[in-house]
Amino acid sequence: MLDPKAADELLGDVDPALLSEAAHTTASAVVHGGRLRSEEPELVARLIALVDAEGLDTIASLWSQSPPQTLPGALWRLYLLREWVRRDPRTIAERYRLGLQRAEVAGVVAGVAGPPGPDEVVALADAVLHGVYSADVAVALERAGSFMRVLATGSAIDADWIADTDETSAASVTRRASALLTTAEELEAAAELWRHDRLE
Questions:
Q1: For 124, what's the count of Cα atoms within 13 Å in the CB-facing half-sphere?
Q2: Taking the alpha carbons of 40, 45, 47, 53 in that order, is the dihedral positive or negative?
Q3: Contact residues for 62 (Cβ-Cβ < 8 A; gap 6+)
Q4: From CA 190, how far away is CA 142, in angstroms rounded?
Q5: How far apart are CA 145 and CA 194, in angstroms?
Q6: Whole-angstrom Cα distance, residue 152 to residue 150?
Q7: Is 192:198 a contact under the CB 8 Å cutoff?
Q8: Domain spans in the chain, listed from the N-terminal domain onward
Q9: Residue 8 needs a FRET pair 20 to 30 A away by CA distance; which of 76, 98, 104, 175 works?
Q10: How far is CA 139 from the centre of its chain?
Q11: Residue 58 three-state SS
Q12: Residue 158 contacts by C-beta under 8 Å, 6 or more apart in sequence?
């Protein structure tokens, strides 16, 4: 990362190459450092709660512009998922339950404790990040991808029901379902890259 004096001397936007380097360096430090010290529960808990301590804007400034099939891009999606679930666990749980009706296999991979309520979906988001630091990163990414697949399915079902009374809201929920499916595919691709030691 740039020191504050060097950052102050920059004119205009930061060079995209510097931003990319900072994103990859910090993501690698967080993941590999956390994995090296995974037997320290306090450290892992702090890493899981990184957004709580640093703020979503700080994490976004580091990782949100990174391509999805990179380590910072994948981490950004995991932390964003956790934050979203924590902000609206009731809606997430309802749509997850709806999605389980048609996406049972993805539901098994995601591993949400049943019946899935607000507390269970929040616990899953934390468990996925815990897996990044103390278990298999690829499995953690796949669990998050499967969770998103179930949510995408549940959102599409919900949009069908909403369409009867509010077409504008239904269209918005449908777009969100499509975005969730895209994110699921990105996380699953990142998992495959990690398995082949190519998620940089």
A1: 30
A2: negative
A3: 22, 23, 26, 27, 72
A4: 9
A5: 14
A6: 5
A7: no
A8: 13-195
A9: 76
A10: 13
A11: helix
A12: 94, 95, 98, 173
Which residue is it, tokens 């380590």?
A: 71
Phi, psi of 111 (to 5 degrees): 75, 35
| Residue 4 CB contacts under 8 Å (≥ 6 apart), including other chains | none
Burial of 35 (0-12, 13-18, 19+ CB in 10 A): middle
Put simply, whether the predicted model's pTM sits higher than 0.70 gets the answer: yes
Residue owning tokens 């998103």: 148
Side chain identity, residue 158: D
Please name the amino acid found at residue 90: R
Q: What is the pLDDT along the chain (200 residues), one digit of tens a residue?
A: 445 555 555 445 667 888 899 999 999 999 999 999 999 999 999 999 999 999 999 999 999 999 999 999 999 999 999 999 999 999 999 999 999 988 887 778 888 877 789 999 999 999 999 999 999 999 999 999 999 999 999 999 888 767 777 677 778 878 889 999 999 999 999 999 999 999 99
